[in-house]
Write a structure and sequence with these properties.
heterodimer, A: about 260 residues, alpha/beta, six-stranded mixed beta sheet, four-stranded antiparallel beta sheet, 8 helices, about 35% helix, B: about 350 residues, mainly alpha, MetI-like fold, two-stranded antiparallel sheet, about 80% helix
Chain lengths: ~260, ~350
């Protein structure tokens, strides 16, 4: 077991409502090692995004907390880069400029102009977007926007990459492409990743561990599944693989038998 | 190059020139003809109907200043006003030449003699009045925008400041700036005391009155624009830990530009209307004073001359809005947005 990289300890959060506080998360404990790819899966409204936002520092836990390399997280920062569900690129900047904004902010003083330029291009190449560097978000497809969003996050050289349903808004084929790209990048960079997903196949294909969450209110971690499949993983050969299908069935059972939505 | 010119024409509302060019160069004539018909024939037809209605109604009404002028009389007065302007310019030129000659003679007799250069004191012509009004409204509008945009941004970013400012904004917004006019006049004459004033007091009075009414729509729209920034973009700036200035310049300003311009255009439109009224009321030079003077003058041409002013005011107001539109399109990042 590698050293503890990211630790969520007894994370509980209440949101104020007119009818008193609403407990969204209750006692979430999770330890993630460096280079691990963890998926959070659960029904919508179960607080997956809240967990991610707390790690990102966008929300503050009411009690408990998050430690990254032993330091407490209490504000957002580029070492915990976020890939948002809706790309959230600045529409008035080109793909290059969007990544540049992040790079300039993170490497101010640390990299020269030429180094920054090279680093921006390198990250755009990683996500295969070098051909559309000068295009604005409105001129590229949804998948391409999400690629640029990933490039922007990677360019911050984060300790943890947080992905909030990054492919949720894409069509199935594009999503498959993006998953391949992500595995390719992951194979090279070995980032620590927390990804939120709704998609059981995506979770099994990409993750080292799948964290399954119970339904809210007061959601917490229900079960954790270790996915011990050889990497690199291939979608086609895994489709017939018994172990793969077993993992898949495990997650489905958790979601639909034990924690099926009462009112869908 | 050709496409660039066409895009510019399209931006300024002269897209139909494109259709004429294409019609003449023979690219799918039928379609171009239809487009052309829609973009100029229909408006021209409507204008023709308007002129006819005007002419027929005007001939029915007699006033103490004679018949209400129809389009023909108004056109004649427009020409007369231009001729008066040209004559005045000729006179001014003659005055200046006479003065130079006189001064040269004086200097030739006695090189130490002090020569006086007197400005021409002829009455301002119609075109002078137009120009006065235009730069007065622009001065007031620019001062207002320079104040209102930062205030709007701050109000949009901070709910506390917004809550503090909102009652004041809401209270002053519905006040007609003409109510302010006497106060502005008194304050300007009390505060702006100088032997060699850079600006006329009347110019300051009018410009400040315009400023007072241009502030509110810009503040309110900028505030709304800034406070409705996509929360994802705000989160991006938080994750990147952007500094306040970078955040404003890179995220807040660009995303609030459409709303901000909506406010600026409303402001300029109101400012132009208010300026004319202020000039009439305070007898400050400009188109408003021209209208009032003509009304007091009460000659048989007066109504026609006032009608000329009405059209001038309308056309200039329209042009000011077009200029804002071009500005908006040139700074807008969303090239697909329909802006009209």
């Amino acid at each position: 077991m590698k050293n503890e990289h990211l630790l969520l300890s007894k994370v509980t959060i209440d949101f104020p409502t007119p009818n008193g506080p609403f407990r969204a998360l209750d006692d979430v404990n999770l330890s993630i090692t460096e280079g691990e790819f963890v998926s959070l899966i659960g029904h919508s409204g179960c607080g997956k995004s809240t967990v991610l936002n707390i790690v990102a520092g966008l929300h503050q836990a009411t009690s408990g907390g998050v430690l990254l390399d032993g330091k407490e997280v209490n504000e957002p920062g580029p070492e915990r880069a976020v890939v948002f569900q809706h790309h959230s690129l600045l529409p008035w900047l080109s793909a290059y400029e969007n990544v540049e904004l992040a790079v300039k902010q993170v490497f101010k003083g640390a990299k020269s102009k030429a180094e920054m330029d090279e680093w921006i291009k390198h990250n755009l190449e990683l996500v295969h977007m070098e051909h559309a560097m000068d295009k604005r978000p409105s001129e590229i497809s949804g998948g391409m926007k999400q690629r640029v969003g990933i490039a922007r996050a990677l360019a911050m050289e984060p300790k943890v990459l947080l992905m909030d349903e990054p492919f949720g808004a894409l069509d199935a084929l594009t999503r498959a492409h993006m998953q391949e790209s992500l595995m390719e990048i992951q194979n090279e960079l070995r980032n620590t990743v927390i990804m939120i997903t709704h998609d059981v196949d995506e979770a099994v294909l990409l993750s080292d561990r799948i964290v399954m969450m119970t339904n809210g209110p007061a959601a917490t971690i229900g079960e954790i599944l270790h996915v011990e499949l050889e990497r690199p993983r291939d979608r086609l050969s895994l489709a017939d693989d018994a172990t793969y299908n077993h993992y898949r069935a495990e997650v489905l059972k958790f979601l639909h038998e034990r924690h099926g939505r009462v009112a869908a | 190059m050709g496409t660039q010119i066409m895009t510019m024409l399209g931006n300024t509302g002269f897209g139909w020139v494109d259709n004429i060019v294409k019609l003449m160069t023979g690219k799918n004539r039928q379609e171009q003809f239809n487009m052309l018909a829609k973009s100029i024939l229909v408006p021209m037809l409507a204008f023709g109907v308007f002129l006819m209605l005007w002419a027929s109604v005007a001939s029915q009404i007699k006033t103490s200043l004679g018949q209400v002028p129809g389009p023909v009389q108004v056109w004649e007065q427009a020409v007369t006003l231009y001729e008066e302007h040209s004559e005045e310019r000729v006179k001014e030129q003659a005055f200046i030449e006479r003065q130079i000659k006189r001064n040269e003679k004086k200097l030739a007799k006695n090189p130490d003699a002090k020569v006086k250069i007197r400005p021409y004191t002829g009455k301002p012509t119609y075109l002078d009045q137009i120009w006065t009004s235009i730069y007065t409204v622009l001065t007031g509008f620019i001062i207002a925008s320079l104040l209102a945009i930062p205030v709007g941004i701050i109000c949009g970013l901070s709910t506390t400041i917004y809550k503090a400012m909102n009652p004041l904004i809401q209270m002053f917004k519905p006040v007609s700036p003409l109510a302010w006019l006497p106060i502005v006049m008194m304050i300007v004459s009390a505060v702006y005391v100088s032997d060699d004033p850079m600006f006329d007091k009347s110019y300051l009075n009018s410009a400040i009155t315009v400023t007072l009414c241009c502030l509110w729509p810009t503040i309110i729209n900028t505030t709304v624009g800034v406070s409705s920034i996509d929360s994802d973009l705000v989160n991006v700036s938080r994750v990147l830990r952007l500094g306040w200035m970078t955040k404003v310049m890179k995220i807040v300003l660009p995303s609030s530009i459409p709303m901000m311009f909506a406010g600026l255009r409303v402001s300029l439109g109101i400012g132009w209307m208010v300026l004319i009224a202020a000039e009439m009321l305070a007898q400050n030079p400009g188109l408003g004073k021209f209208v009032w003077d003509e009304f007091q003058n009460g000659s048989s041409d007066s109504l026609a001359r006032i009608m000329v002013a009405v059209f001038t005011i309308g056309i200039i107001g329209f042009m000011l809005d077009r200029i804002m539109l071009i500005l908006q399109k040139s700074v807008s990042w969303d090239k697909d947005a329909v802006i009209r």
